[in-house]
Amino acid sequence: MSAMTPVFMLLSVQAAMGAFDNWWHHELQARLPHRPSARYELALHAAREAIYGVVFFGLAWFAWHGAWAALIAALLLTELGITLADFLEEDRTRRLPPLERVLHTLLTISYGLFLGLMAPVLWSWLQQPTALVVAPHGWVSWLFTAFALGVWAWSVRNLRAVLRLRRAAAAPAAEPQAVPGDSQHHTAPATLVTGATGFVGSALVAQLLQGGQRVIVLTRDVLQARASLGPGVWAVDTLDAIPPETPIDAVVQLAGARVLGMPWTAARRRVLLASRVDTTMAVVALMRRLHHRPRVLVSASAVGFYGASPNASMEPLDENAPPRPGEFQSDLCAAIEHEARRAEALGVRVVRLRLGVVLGNGGGAYPMQALSARLGLGAVLGHGRQAAPWIHLADALGLIRFALARNDVQGPINAVAPGAVPQRSFVQALAASFGQRVWLTMPAAPLRWALGEMSTLLLDGQNVVPQAALALGYQFVHPDLPGALRDLAGTRTETEAR
């Protein structure tokens, strides 16, 4: 075994943990590339990844003798400084979840062990005459070349995000926005938004602020909310922090843990229920103690209210269709709506927004679906005939604003585009928006076996129609799927081009 073997083994572990941290925490959870306040953190990540690329490729193919060894040592020490700066920036701008803290601890320990293994190697190299000696390590060199290309690509991607976010931050705001201090010093009625750092919530808050409205947000991470949403919001981590004299005109309840993801174990079901029902209960409790009750509550539910049996996709479901007791997604949505309706007894107009899959570039399901389609990996799920109710982000926000503004909007509202399409047609249209075709089919049996009841979200649909929205006169911005997907693909392409 060569002296470099344990180095490569440890670096492989480091690369795997770092890739998971980047994808799961930075991309999917914190959504750093979409947050103007994350520019500095992303710049640090880009620099660190560039260094890792040099280290991966350099150690895979060369022995760095003499002054070259000093260069490698300087790069490793620079990476250590970048990591320390990154820790400080993360503590300043967001509250890390427990898993990310544990992973960062493991990455730090692993990097320390790596430095310990590299120290005698570098010292040995330093004693040699200065030369860059070709020293391949068989298949390991090719593996680490792939690692290097991956981190360099991610470094470039983060650098482009930094430049894009800097341009966005430098652009003048559409409207001047007040900086909130103590809520008691404000007399203008506010809109309270829960789940404000999520995909739909953050876009809604941005629109409200651009319209000159005062916004209060409930969030688990006040630091992240302030960093991502900007200084024009008042962020609280408990509704008890809002004094009873605070004037709140409207409430939008969007909070809730991600439904599609972790298996629906008993513990996960409790989390899904608590994240939605408990927040809705807290919102209603706040309304009871406010001196002036809000005018309206828009509470987000989902089309899962109607259940997802295989036959449901054949029946048009308007807002009068009943739930399907015994199916978890239906019971979850029914529980949310039951708690929201308690606000009606307080004289508050309640709108129960039953959202389909929201399509937008900033988050949700679309970015991963789009990536698969662009790579030619889009797949028909099961027989592909199950209805796939969807709505463009612009219309999801439009319906929320419509419900806030119109006093005649109340009760259940199906927030879906007119005419759900079969899943097969959906994935084909998605692929076509990128000039691709669909070649793959995923049989239903493995999905049902692997995902259990959660597989119904993918394999069994609801043919939901927005009857109430259309009857009230809402004009959809993107009523048809091909047009919506062209808009999203075009928006993404233009953003990447910039």
TrEMBL record:
The chain crosses the membrane at residues 50-77, 102-126, 138-156. SUPFAM superfamilies: NAD(P)-binding Rossmann-fold domains. InterPro entries: DUF1731 (IPR013549), Epimerase_deHydtase (IPR001509), NAD(P)-bd_dom_sf (IPR036291), SDR39U1 (IPR010099). Residues 192-409 form the NAD-dependent epimerase/dehydratase domain. Keywords: Membrane, Transmembrane, Transmembrane helix. It comes from the Bacteria. Residues 442-488 form the DUF1731 domain. Belongs to the NAD(P)-dependent epimerase/dehydratase family. SDR39U1 subfamily. This is TIGR01777 family protein. It comes from Acidovorax kalamii.
